[in-house]
Predict the structure.
Amino acid sequence: MTHATHSADAAARIEALREKIRHHEHLYYVLDNPSISDAEFDDLTRELQRLEHEHPELITPDSPTQRVGGKPKEGFAKIAHSRPMLSLDNVMSEAELRDWDRRVRSLAGEGADIGYVCEYKMDGVSMALQYRAGADGAARLERGLTRGDGTTGEDVTTNVRTIRSVPLSISKAKLAKAGMPQSFEVRGEVVMPLSAFRKLNADREARGLALAANPRNYAAGTIRTLEPNIVAQRRLDFYAYFLLNERGEDLLPEQAEALDALTTAGFRVNPHREALPSIERVLAFIERAAQQRDQLGYEIDGVVIKVNSTAVQRHLGYTGRAPRWAVAYKFTARGGITQVQDIRVQVGRTGKLTPVAVLTPVSIGGTTVSRATLHNADEIERLGLLIGDYVKVERGGDVIPKVVEVVEDKDHPRGHREFRFPAHCPECGSEIHRTESEADYRCVNIDCPARLRESLLHYASRGVMNIEGLGEAVVAELLDHGLVKSIADLCSLTDAQLAQLQHEVTTTDRKTGQQKTRTQALVGPRERKDLLAEIEASKKAPLNRVLYGLGIRFVGERTAQLLADEFGSMEALMSASREELERVNEVGPRVSEAIREFFDESRNRELVHRLERAGLTMTAEKRRKSSQLEGLKFVLTGTLPSLSREQAKAKIEAAGGRVSGSVSKETNYVVAGEEAGSKLDRARELGVAVLNEAELEEMLARS
Ligand code: IVH
């Protein structure tokens, strides 16, 4: 086969693969409805990666392999918007909304047919995506701009490209079906799904980092990160809600049509949307949205109501900063004002002391909140908080409620009592300690009863060993009865032991109003059976979860997974040196020290052995890191400017590639340095790609 046909075949296969991958990306990331397995999807991606490596000249920026690219060199450029990105006026009540509706109707004039489109107001950051004519009649994502000051935004294209629900290109056929031109602009909201937000925060907590307040802040911070790799890991999502032409004008006569066209073109458009003829129907929509608010996988803070006809929109125009033709009905914030009755200090499973505000109970977004975290001593100082103060409490993304600020006005006088951080552990009276680099104090006693309690709760919790039914009450009783002295004791609990657990119930006699207290089994026979079955089932959890369950400082879900993949057994991990540990991605000195410290403690090693005897999983399949060099063959020749032959070989192998001694047809790349000899000639003869050291480094950096 001649070189030309060879590469024509490859080009066809590459294009076919790209279309297939785009199709499956759409099913998975936009419609949440995949039709093939992850493994099959990975296979397609790997085949494409391999072909693109063999034919680097065929790589195009809209290839699904090119979502994560280089970082912007000098920060984000500021670029003018095609038309200002405005904000919306808010209404907070039915009466205000009806006023708005009346204004719209009177301004639109007698006889104007006013219909509305209702959409959810997603709580994220707004974004403008510009698509321009690409090859073969397709549209290609050219630029992503943040709102910025409304007139100019920041060019965050490199980051937006990593969002998998943002199409990098849209085929001619799709555009035709959607009735869209090759060049257009889409505006919408970048959001962080709650699942991603919770995961991130759980991981941050395990690693001793400060928690993010809500998904919106996280999304906003992420989209402005200068590291596309990190952005890609954060699993952001994009919901489209405006379709404009390239000059920023309306493209279609109706908003409802625009949303449908965007859906057809492959964008994620919130399915909770409706075109409605009257404000009565709009109010009913808002009512339903408020009820659904807690069942969605993302945060919404209201409903946006837009006039459907774009002609009427133009007629209505703008007031200063906001359109007259749209309004945001805002839900009451999930915050409330209440008084701090006390500040208590809780001891966590790693001995960390967390100050918690005890609040006068207040209802926030349907749940009663009586406690809110204050994170650490520095945070109390930052807030200037005194016991007795009134504070604003927020519940963002339904994480632990947080004190946002101290409120002071004529209805809310300041408190008086200053809080002093205790000098000793409030649970066991031991010394507490804080290292210079950390914000937190810790109880030094590894036998502190609070640590055991929290360790047990962590071990049993969802996402760790998933032992349903082993909550605070049961754990407290187990400890009280001395039935459990370590995590391992959970594995051998019996029905008879659980039957010993009791609690007091107080009942009031309906006739006499007298109160009676009696003790009753805490866990009924049926629940005991279920709980024991849950414990049995938990023993089958894979190594990474067992490891996570041990509650080692800084070893969160993700780190545990990486460690299990790398070491393949608890045994290997327990005997790994700090150096070996730090070879694992994302494991730095702090983490390696915590792991060593944990396993150097003989009681912890004993715990692991007991768990092993109880039948828990202590090995895992070593997983090879998937990478772009997977399956590629390299030959090294000559003297490279900075890497030794061994170093280059190690780097290639670490990225999944193979290094062999002689050049053949099977060779994908020859890496040549100074005074390369016959191998280089042979490579040229066979048409094998030749790289210098810089190109090799670049390729490694990309994988
Ligand atoms: S329309 C000029 N539709 O809410 C029209 N905005 O308070 C402005 N938002 O900046 C935007 N979901 O970030 C619109 N379905 C939706 C929305 C939405 C969320 C955000 C957007 C905007 C802010 C306005």
Observations:
- Residues 86-88, 119, 121-122, 126, 189, 241, 304, 323, 326, 328 surround 2-(butylsulfanyl)adenosine (CB under 6 Å).
- The chain is about 40% helix and 20% strand.
- Residues 3-30 form the longest helix (28 residues).
